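Below is a filled-in request sheet from our internal design queue. Each sheet records the structural input a requester submitted and the sequence that came back. We keep these sheets so that new team members can see what a complete request looks like end to end.

REQUESTER: design group, bay 2
PRIORITY: normal
MODE: inverse folding
CHAIN LENGTH: 336
BACKBONE (tokenized):
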């Protein structure tokens, strides 16, 4: 009997993601763009919603996000070898790390928001957070060569800060956990403010100018808590509010402030049309309020007290900065 050999051929469908490389100035409108790269000026059109999926290659040139546009980098983060500029109302969301990676690169946030679901690193190029600008980072903000400037009304939120070089702060820095100043200088101007759970300075006199620090848990001035080898500052215009354990700390020329309120800021009286606190689970409350605002209203400080005498700030909510009655909702954890 004759044997028959049968060969089975399997057909495979190979799916290849189309890459988009822009080597000339280009404007993108709403849509999803896989494997996007550019070395010229790439503009996200005003009022557009754009998503980059796959690899994002910022090889040079510029990235401009126009007014009220949103660009989301869905994966792999973003390494910027060129300038990033956000117009008022624009948003940049980076799922991963964001690195300002080149001396010719910069990041400017003007009345806009950058959200980084990872770490943010200022490598060599300058970073500027302007008035009503927000840089919100879930991980660590690292300034490797200095060059971070936060103007009056600007804000950076992070889990941790690591500062090298000279960084200039006229706005607000908030660290949920740790702030470390390795060398250089954190130069406060105007009413600059840093709020952090733990402050660790690795060189003497690393804070200067006119500003305010709120340290809620610990202060280390030479890697060891309470060691007096490094003084914080020679400036008597730097105020400190410290609520951690008693230590033999060398704050230098700084003066101790009796409250967590920045004495340089004006607290404006507001007649609330509505204020309600609704209890939630796990010592949380949902606060709702409505208040008339002006363009001069900067923020609302939420404070709590255990004895109705001493108050501490647990949250700062930026104002919407528009005229008229504004409604707010904010969930807070009391922590008693």
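RETURNED SEQUENCE:
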């Amino acid at each position: 009997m004759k044997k028959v050999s049968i060969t089975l051929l399997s057909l495979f469908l190979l799916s290849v993601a189309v890459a988009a490389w822009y080597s000339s100035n280009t404007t993108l409108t709403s849509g999803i763009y896989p494997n996007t790269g550019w070395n010229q000026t790439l503009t996200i059109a005003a009022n557009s919603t754009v998503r980059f999926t796959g690899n994002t290659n910022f090889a040079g040139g510029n990235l401009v996000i126009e007014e009220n546009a949103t660009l989301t980098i869905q994966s792999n983060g973003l390494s910027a070898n060129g300038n990033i500029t956000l117009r008022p109302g624009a948003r940049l969301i980076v799922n991963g790390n964001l690195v300002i990676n080149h001396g010719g690169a910069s990041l400017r946030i003007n009345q806009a928001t950058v959200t980084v679901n990872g770490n943010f690193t200022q490598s060599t190029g300058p970073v500027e957070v302007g008035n009503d600008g927000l840089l919100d980072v879930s991980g660590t903000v690292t300034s490797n060569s200095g060059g971070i400037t936060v103007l009056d009304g600007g804000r950076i939120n992070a889990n941790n800060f690591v500062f090298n070089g000279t960084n200039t702060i006229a706005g607000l820095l908030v660290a949920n956990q740790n702030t470390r100043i390795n060398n250089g200088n954190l130069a406060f101007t105007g009413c600059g403010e840093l709020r952090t759970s733990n402050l660790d300075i690795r060189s003497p006199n690393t804070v200067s100018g006119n500003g305010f620090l709120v340290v809620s848990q610990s202060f280390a001035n030479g890697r060891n808590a309470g060691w007096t080898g490094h003084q914080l500052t020679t400036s008597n215009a730097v105020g400190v509010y410290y609520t951690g354990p008693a230590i033999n700390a060398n704050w230098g020329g700084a003066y101790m402030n009796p409250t967590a309120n920045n004495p340089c800021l004006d607290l404006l009286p507001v007649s609330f049309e509505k204020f309600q606190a609704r209890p939630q689970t796990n010592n949380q409350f949902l606060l709702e309020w409505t208040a008339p605002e002006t363009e001069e209203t900067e923020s609302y400080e939420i404070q709590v007290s255990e004895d109705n005498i001493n108050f501490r700030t647990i949250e700062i909510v930026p104002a919407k900065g528009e005229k008229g009655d504004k409604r707010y909702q904010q969930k807070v954890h009391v922590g008693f």
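SHEET NOTES:
- The two ends are 90 Å apart (CA to CA).
- The chain has two domains: 20-256, 274-333.
FILED BY: M.R.
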